[in-house]
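Quick one, tokens below. Sequence please?
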């Protein structure tokens, strides 16, 4: 027994030493600092964005849009296959204040079938519609339920959605607000959110691992999110309640990123409202402004930054009506990068005689889309889809 005790003591001592050593494994020389390479500034200096409007050799705007969109799609790699049919089913339905809420299920691609919320106003259609795109928030348990009040069949989802909407959306479900004002509203989960998550349950850290695995298949998880947004807009345009010439997209945070990406890549989008997601890479990807990039793979399309920055991609949507709102109190998107991006896009719209269709505003708000911002989005949509 004493010999066994000595052996156990030795093993425990070795294990403890290994744990301590692992936690203190730090070399005198290093190449990365605060999640960036030490040569980050050199990398940024090499991003010249040769495909941007004004930088490109293509001087005809229509041809430039086609070429720039083609480059974005090339970097997004192969899309999921289109479904043979949508096969839509209505799973649940309830009457609300001035509209009907439906939970539906349909084939979004040849790979997967998804569930979504569809809100249809009372009255005679077809109506203008909004593809309402949810945020990231490092909160993956709910997706579409951040935008549309959930059905009363899951108390945990309802409680989670209510808390999220109170914190980010001023206590008002944006989708229900738009439906009460005459819009068909569609919202579904992005890959990894809500009812498209992991069988094992939510784990934010698994997103990046799965995104890496997708790249090993020659596919891009962030691109699949955008491909799905394009495909869901195609689906929305087929519904008899919807006027296919009056479809907009809107969202906050990652939902804003998804919105201007969708507006740039889908001809079915007539207008776009993006709240709290616009910046330039030189400000986003540096420690100079006291923030590291946390979005990671959710907005990472391999190789794209060698050709176009965020505002250049959004400019593919020109001359469509676009509304951008960012907050001066937003800690995620620093004002120098926001203002620079707004300036780049404004120049593009003005160059095409469409300056009146570009609206970019700085509000004294944090990273959020409260009641006043939602009202501003509604006024913008009414102006361009109803008047």
């Amino acid at each position: 027994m004493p010999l066994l005790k000595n052996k156990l003591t030795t093993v425990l001592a070795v294990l403890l030493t290994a744990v301590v050593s692992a936690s203190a494994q730090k070399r005198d020389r290093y190449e990365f600092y605060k999640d960036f390479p030490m040569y980050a500034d050199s990398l940024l200096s090499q991003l010249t964005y040769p495909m941007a409007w004004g930088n490109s050799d293509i001087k005809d705007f229509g041809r430039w849009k086609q070429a720039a969109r083609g480059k974005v799609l090339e970097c997004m790699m192969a899309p999921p296959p289109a479904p043979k049919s949508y096969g839509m089913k209505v799973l649940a339905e309830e009457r609300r204040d001035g509209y009907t809420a439906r939970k539906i299920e349909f084939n979004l691609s040849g790979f997967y079938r998804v569930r979504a919320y569809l809100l249809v106003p009372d009255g005679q259609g077809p109506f203008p519609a909004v593809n309402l795109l949810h945020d990231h928030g490092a909160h993956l348990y709910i997706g579409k339920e951040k935008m549309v009040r959930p059905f009363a069949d899951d108390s945990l989802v309802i409680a989670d959605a209510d808390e999220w909407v109170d914190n980010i959306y001023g206590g008002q479900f944006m989708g229900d607000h738009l439906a009460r004002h005459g819009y068909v509203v569609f919202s579904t989960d992005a890959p990894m959110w809500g009812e498209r998550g992991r069988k094992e349950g939510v784990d934010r850290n698994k997103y990046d691992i799965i995104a890496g695995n997708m790249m090993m298949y020659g596919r891009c998880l962030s691109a699949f999110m955008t491909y799905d947004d394009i495909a869901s807009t195609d689906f929305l345009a087929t519904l008899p309640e919807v006027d296919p010439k009056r479809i907009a997209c809107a969202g906050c945070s990652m939902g804003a990123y998804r919105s201007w990406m969708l507006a740039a890549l889908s001809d079915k989008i007539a207008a776009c409202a993006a709240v709290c997601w616009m910046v330039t890479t030189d400000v986003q990807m540096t420690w100079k402004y006291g923030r590291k990039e946390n979005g990671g793979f959710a907005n990472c399309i391999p190789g794209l930054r060698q050709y176009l920055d965020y505002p250049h991609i959004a400019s593919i949507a020109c001359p469509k009506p676009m509304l951008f709102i960012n907050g001066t109190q937003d800690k995620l998107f620093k004002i120098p990068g926001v203002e620079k991006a707004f300036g780049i896009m404004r120049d593009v719209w003005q160059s095409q005689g469409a300056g009146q269709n570009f609206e970019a505003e700085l509000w004294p708000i944090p990273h959020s889309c409260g009641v006043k911002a939602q009202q501003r989005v509604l006024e913008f949509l009414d102006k361009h889809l109803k008047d």
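The chain has a mean pLDDT of 93. DSSP finds twelve helices and eleven strands in the chain.
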